[in-house]
UniProtKB/TrEMBL annotation:
The chain crosses the membrane at residues 7-23, 72-97, 109-132, 138-157. It comes from the Bacteria. Residues 7-123 form the VTT domain. InterPro entries: VTT_dom. Keywords: Membrane, Transmembrane, Transmembrane helix. It holds the Pfam family VTT_dom. This is Membrane-associated protein. It comes from Corynebacterium maris DSM 45190.
Amino acid sequence: MDGIFSAYPFWAAWIFLFFGAMLRGQGTYWIGRGAAAGVAKGVTRTPNWWSRMQEKVAGRTTDRGRATLEKLGVLAIPLAYLTVGLQTAIILAAGLVRMPLGIFALAQLPGAAAWATIYSTIGFAAWAAAVRALTGDWWPLLALLLVSVIVAVIFRVRGGRRRSEAEAEHVDHAERSVQNSSTG
């Protein structure tokens, strides 16, 4: 453990990070619920800060979060805590689609626990490696970059295979439809 938590025992840092993740997730969820409620009520006069918030909520990243939530269902919530950049969008989308609070809170528990574990152990070490690289020691950043590229390539290859399989299935279905219509 590196940085501000090094003076504290592991369990204290973990508890602090766990509750921080839970509070942040709940706050983001309730912003989504508030935006959905405002739209449902047809609220048109809002303060400037709320209008800016609604523009962000209607953005492309939130659309990606909503698509992920629709694809994975409630499983997207704990998995969101393992992402960077999409976490807020998925949790916001859960509020926007009005996922029941009890289900959201239960789904949030393992995600927040995983996030707290990562950041109370290796997470801050990764950030420290990036800082060391920026200050002249580039080997830690190179290792982190290499691991990131390998993970990205794995996900890209797996996603490409899934798309190819889906396209092949679509073509087979279309061919069967043509055959059935010509024989019928």
